Amino acid sequence: MTGMKKITAFFIMLTLSVTALAQSQDFTLGQSLEIQNSILRHLARNYVDSLEFDKMMKAGIDAMLGYIDPYTMYFPEEEDESVQMMTTGMYGGVGAVIRKRVGGGVVINEPYPDSPIAKAGLVPGDTIIAINDVPVFDETSEQSSSRMKGQPNTDVKFKVIKGGTRDTIDVVVTRETIHRSDVEYSGIIRDSIGYIQTSGFTQGVSDELRQIVKDLKARGAKRLVLDLRGNGGGLMEEAIEILSIFVPQGTMVVSSKGRMAGQNHEYRTKGVPVDTLIPLMIMVDSGSASASEIVAGAVQDLDRGVIAGAKTYGKGLIQTILPTAYNGTVKITTGKYYTPSGRCVQAIDYSHRNADGSVGAIPDSLTSEFRTKNGRIVKDGGGITPDIKVESHIYSRPTVSLVYNGILDDYAVKYRTQHAQIAPVEQFRLTDAEFEDFISYACDQEFDYRSGIQAQTEQLKRVAEQDGLYDMFKDEIDALVSKMQMDKADVLRSKKDEILPLLENEVAVRYYFYPAGPAVNLKYDEQLDKCLDNWK
Q1: Is the pTM for the entire model greater than 0.90?
Q2: Is residue 41 part of a domain?
């Protein structure tokens, strides 16, 4: 057989193989659909009780997609607002973070600046007990929140108990299109450093950031920090546009690869840069994911700036939102993205992660080396490893419990109802007496105040009892458990250094809205301070 005939035969065999594979997949899909339909028909005709097929199908779809990966999701028509919020950051509503009390009403926890609910005169601590004349007591927080949302320019009626006076009033609020900016804070910090904190990458954030960078430069910023800690990402297009602020036009900043050749692309910046030379630091941590990692990875690979903080989450997957029957949508993982050096930040095994969801340690044998623009070695295998490594603060068990149980939130609302005003956020501090007042309040609440070592010693006692060894070591174990005991007040005082900043944050937000939170955090941000100290 001649060489040409061998090549022709090879391509024929390859074509037949691909065709057979496609036919096999089509057959398996058709078979699976027939089995599913057969089971549903049997259920409809023979099951002992009536069935809610819409809920069953939603549960089945969710389970099916969850089996594939954690990011592929289905949204029925009634959840279209969630899709809009995810992509644009906008929804129709009244503009407030609420907190549902068990067996009680809906407490206004945090109104947004200039929101409809704020314009109506409602403040933190006011409690909604009915929405459109329907009581909220038996509803979940999600159900109450859903009824508060709706088309812009429509009215919603609240029956409210005012937090300060305890008067019950009726308030009509006109819904608006609510858009909470992804930019949490911007300003000048020490040594003429411009600082910007963003929480997401929804539509339009790049335009906002472009203007903020110009403003900070006009105010004398000589260096810039873009804080992406806790930023879970969003639209890849916005990440590319943000990079266009700092790198030359036409720079390749990310590429993607999918199952089909048509899904493979290189993405280059199109916008005219604001400044390609100003020193740049990107702050990241284990909560920085997806589009945040695109920005951090490109800045690192192009040697455009330094990455500082802790290793990022490790999500290098691209999702595409597609329409389904009956006006639903499905968010499908369609590819992986790669940084300019060619590395993928996706965790090798995204089904096994740390407690916070981030990727764990990856053995060197499972990683590959890549080179930045200037020849520095960087690795793949899960997340972006910072150039300046400073680990995030790990909060103690009691502090986490205070946050989880909403005790900081509740005290901040209580404080707001008792104090008409506070000092400007830059000067605001809680006094020692006010912190003691918080301790008194918290001691009356239910939360797990045990220290980590106290919980471990109690666990030691239980294990000894299970193993039948407790009696043998009773005196030693009981002495150790007793020594580790602390009452609630003592525990809270011992953790003042980490509780106080969080508490001041919550209180300040109740007066000056969400930009006040990062302003307070900056006063206590040891991780940022250490990174700045090491930024050459």
Answers
A1: no
A2: no
